[in-house]
Amino acid sequence: MTVMRRRAPPESAFLGDLAQSYYWDSHEAPLRRSDLTITQIYLALFAHHPRWARWLLILRGWIVAPFGLRTTTAAAFDAIEIKPAYSVGEKIARFTLYSQNATEIVTGGDDRHLDFRVSVRKLSVDGASRVVLSTIVEPHNLFGRVYLRVILPFHRLGVRALLANAARAGRI
Fold first, then answer.
1. Largest alpha-carbon pair distance within the chain?
2. If you write DSSP's letter for every residue of 51-88 in order, what string do you get?
């Protein structure tokens, strides 16, 4: 399944100019199931992590816990609640929902070291449906910038894997 990194992020109804962020990335994949709502697309990605990605996120939690950062447990993955609709402020697949419309959903989290947002967009590009997963990160301090540099290789691998996994499984 073809997952491509975008040279420029798509316009976001909620995030403004992503390219002005400290860090951003954006990946896209074909959307074969254009009948899905944006919430269904989001959950097709984030409610089905590959096993190795789950374990890496749990390991990350053990490593960062002494620094006071939020951790991820196996129970958090097992407790993902799938509902037909979510309201702003609720958790959706481990992240807080910040905004949504028919073509985009934005989630994320804020910590003392950095804030991040994840945008999942449903686009039509040259007549073909695509799903675009974009991430922006704004570190607040040196610790946030160092942390970001350490996790970026894993983040990039994980984002591509989420998209490819969902496409291969026929969820998107």
1. 49
2. HHHHHHHHHHHHHHGGGT-----HHHHHT----S---T
